[in-house]
Amino acid sequence: MPEIEHEDGVQIDFISGEKMEGKTSMEKIRLILDGVHDGNIVVLERGLSPDEESKLIEVTMSEINPDGFSGIEIESFPRSEANDGGFLNRLMGKNESSKLTVIGPANQIKSLHKDDTLISALISRD
After folding, report:
1. Is pTM beyond 0.85 here?
2. Residue 82: its pLDDT value, please?
3. Which of 33, 39, 83, 118 has a C-alpha 20 to 30 A away from that of 104?
């Protein structure tokens, strides 16, 4: 992702669903973690599948370093049940992960709150 020069601000990368389409799970995870390692907040338009979220957490845990990377904070809006295509599609494994997801460095996100219609983050720069 292109880096924006900033001194005192926090860069927020909004990643469209189109950009993530066609990428493997590991490509998505690397894209996210590379941004977070740079101190950026990453916002995914469509989010990750439950398996991808689990893998993201697993990879993150392996990269935590006491003198460097402190991990991630992640919050997602769940899919709307009205738009999920019904029980048969879920049964057949055709779940679309169409949910907004916010991911950022654990040492910069001081507070992350979610309710049904809002994700709110208090972010500090180091």
Report:
1. no
2. 47
3. 83
